[in-house]
Amino acid sequence: MAVLTGAGISAESGVPTFRGDGGLWKDYKAEDLATPEAFVKDPRLVWEWYNWRRELISKALPNAAHKALVQLEIRKREYTLITQNVDGLHDRAGSGRMLKLHGDIWRMRCTVCGANWPDRRAPLPKIPPHCACGGLARPGVVWFGEPLPDGMMKEAEHAAGAAEVFLVIGTAAVVYPAASLVPYAKQGGAKVIEINTDDTPFTNQVDCALRGPAGELLPRLV
Ligand code: BJW
Ligand code: ZN
User: Fold this and answer.
1) pTM
2) Which atom, in ligand 1's list, is nearest to the CA of 65?
3) In a mutational test of the pocket of ligand 1, which residue from 50, 98, 176, 193 has the highest number of ligand atoms less than 8 Å from its CB?
4) How many whole angstroms separate alpha carbon 9 and alpha carbon 1?
5) How many structural domains does the chain have?
6) CATH number for the domain including 164?
7) Residue 157 domain boundaries
8) What is the pLDDT along the chain (222 residues), one digit of tens a residue?
9) How far, in Å, are 82, 106, 119, 206 from residue 193 at the CA level?
10) Residue identifier of the C-alpha nearest atom 73 of ligand 1
11) What residue owns the CA closest to ligand 1's atom 12?
């Protein structure tokens, strides 16, 4: 079994999703801020957004859906969690290994020397933060136009392709290459189950579309 999660699984923890209601920050869309170009143009603005999100996430707690996935992991011999989320709520719920396709908001990376390190302070004492070498630090996440962490998509494809059941939870499934895992799993013979409050571009291709909040539906399914 393999699972792909998106921002919707953290919505009931109070973490805003990217698209739809509440997906805006000071009139900016995620697409305007989650890019290397936005960071080069105005690192302080981009860091203000991340600082705001880090504070919000640090106060949030994993919900019943994150916890249900921990139970699945315990029960299933073959299990891979693939997440697009950077919030760390799967880790805090107790999930073990996972593929974090879009990185981790609790890590920093130096734009000069490439060093990367964990930093859980929220709010950060000074923005933009800097590396020990003096270089400007950036969030350890994947922005639009950037490659996913080395080899991770291959590993995710392997898990999706081998899965008998592929659960797709709380993702609009519009950001690639992550979204491509849904048809990939289907072509590999998986039964695909989608849990979402709304339709997605894949709703009419999945084997089962469950409509409603993940925090209610997933514990029942598990
Ligand atoms: C609930 C719920 C509840 C709510 N219960 N459900 C044209 C075609 C194909 C691809 C492209 C294209 N043009 C450009 C691209 C590439 C681009 C892309 O996909 N763009 C599309 C938007 C068009 N992709 C990239 O650039 C990727 N990189 C890449 O392609 O590299 C190529 C390359 C190779 C080699 C060298 C160089 C380059 C990178 C993508 C990175 C995405 N990054 C972000 C930000 C991460 C950091 C951060 O968080 O700040 O990732 S963007 C943002 O979207 C974030 C998310 O992980 C991602 C997906 O969002 P998600 O999870 O689906 O959230 P929402 O908000 O969209 O949806 C929430 C869903 O939950 C909704 O469906 C709700 O209904 C539901 N819901 N409450 C259940 N309680
Ligand atoms: Zn450095």
Assistant:
1) 0.97
2) 5
3) 176
4) 18
5) 1
6) 3.40.50.1220
7) 2-221
8) 999 999 999 999 999 999 987 787 888 988 899 999 999 999 999 999 999 999 999 999 999 999 999 999 999 999 999 999 999 999 999 999 999 999 999 999 999 999 999 999 999 999 999 999 999 999 999 999 999 999 999 999 999 999 999 999 999 999 999 999 999 999 999 999 999 999 999 999 999 999 999 999 999 999
9) 15, 30, 35, 6
10) 172
11) 176
